[in-house]
Amino acid sequence: MRKIVLILGIIFTLCTGCYAAEGELPDVQIELRDYDGVQLDAGTFIPVINASEVSTQNCPEGFKTMFIATNDMYLEDVNVIPKDTVFYGRVEDLHEPVIGTNGSMKIRIVKMIYPDGFEMPIRGYIYSSNNNILGGEMTLPEKYVKMPHYQTRYYALTLQLRPGRERKMGVHSTLRAGENKLIILTDPIWITHTLTD
Q1: The CA-based dihedral angle spanning residues 49, 51, 53, 58, taken in that order and rounded to the nearest 10 degrees
Q2: What is the pLDDT of residue 23?
Q3: Long-range contacts from 70-77, C-beta under 8 angstroms, 24+ separation
Q4: Is 7 helix (H, G, I), strand (E, B) or coil?
Q5: Structural domains of the chain, ranges and CATH numbers in brackets
Q6: How far is CA 30 from CA 21, 35, 39, 176, in A?
Q7: Residue 88: which of 63, 121, 110, 119 has the closest Cα?
Q8: Which residues share a beta bridge with 161?
Q9: What is the Cα–Cα distance from 104 to 124, expressed in whole angstroms?
């Protein structure tokens, strides 16, 4: 019984001390810097350079990639993406070459790291006019068929080469190291971290 009374007494003392201390604290207002963030909209292009070779021949799905910003990117007089910012991504939607089609892949960009070490998640892809698919082109015909065309005006025969049905075997798609590319953002990003000189 004594233990219960002692515990209740301690709890009562602590609770009344907290309420008394709350009223005694001065009202402190934190002064924030006068700075609003900048939003990069979806569809924004960021010029980058590839840091290492990526190929459908030797890179599996999930292979990690790295790209580096080639120059400073300004928006509203603010350097939102400085030169040498590193972008990390991974290979997804990988397809091996087959007869008639070259190998293809997509590279999703998942985060960027500023030169001072600040890290920010982003969503984007390495840009391609073919729905961001790198490679996947149709291969050349295996052979051509000769087609005669009769010209009634000159009473002559002309042979024209028409692509046959068979196509050549596709080749692997490769993104070489040092190749200039563009990242296209698929979601807007809100940037509040900027570097100053």
Answers
A1: -130
A2: 52
A3: 70/180, 71/47, 73/46, 73/47, 75/38, 75/40, 76/38
A4: helix
A5: 38-139+167-191 (2.40.128.260)
A6: 20, 15, 25, 51
A7: 110
A8: 146
A9: 18
64-69 and 180-185 as β-strands: parallel, antiparallel, unpaired? unpaired
Encoded tokens for 46 = 């960021």
Number of H helices, E strands in the chain: 1, 15
pLDDT digits (tens, 9 = 90+) for 140-167: 888 888 888 777 777 777 888 888 888 8
DSSP single-letter state for residue 10: H
For 86, residues 6+ apart whose C-beta sits below 8 A from its C-beta are 51, 66, 67, 68, 69, 112, 113
